[in-house]
Write a structure and sequence with these properties.
9 helices; 77% helix; single chain; mainly alpha
């Protein structure tokens, strides 16, 4: 299915490339879940980040074709998270940020943000607000960050609660 996926990408049939990648990932799941031999499993699993990379590219480009740069960026975020999970699962998380495919997806994301003037996502804003709530930030900045966390709590209440609880403990 590699050649099929590459052909769909080259022909700019991005939805079909996503389907081909999903098919490959499903076959890889079957191999992983039912293989009696770890070496045989790893001979397939080593390509999972590569397939996820192609899938992420295709999904982002499909969204872009539909004039939705925000969705394209979201597709990249989802793909990067899926790739990170693979790295973590195989105890290679420290290699994630240096991986060439990860870097290419991040460059694509930055390029889309700049070209289509797309600001940070809600998750990225929440992460920044959480970072700014930590002790050591100026009291005005910290207050604004806490207010932002409160507003964004409707999207991730567990993270907001954990953040606010941590602030109450550092008084």
């Amino acid at each position: 299915y590699y050649h099929r996926r590459i052909s769909w990408l080259r022909l700019q049939h991005y939805h079909r490339a996503v389907e081909a990648a999903d098919h490959t990932l499903a076959l890889m799941d079957v191999c992983r879940d039912h293989s009696p031999d770890e070496d045989w499993t790893m001979s397939h699993e080593q390509y999972r980040p590569f397939v996820l990379f192609h899938r992420t590219q295709a999904a982002a480009l499909a969204a872009l074709e539909e004039a939705d740069a925000t969705q394209a960026i979201n597709e990249i975020d989802v793909g990067l998270e899926q790739m990170r999970e693979v790295f973590v699962e195989h105890e290679a998380e420290e290699e994630f940020d240096e991986d060439e495919m990860v870097q290419q997806l991040r460059k694509l994301k930055d390029s889309l943000r700049e070209e289509y003037e797309v600001g940070p996502s809600l998750q990225e804003r929440l992460a920044e607000a959480v970072r700014m709530t930590r002790a050591g930030n100026f009291s005005r900045t910290r207050h604004a960050a806490v207010t932002t966390v409160r507003k964004l709590a409707s999207h991730d209440p567990d993270l907001a609660f954990a953040t606010i609880s941590g602030l109450l403990n550092d008084i």
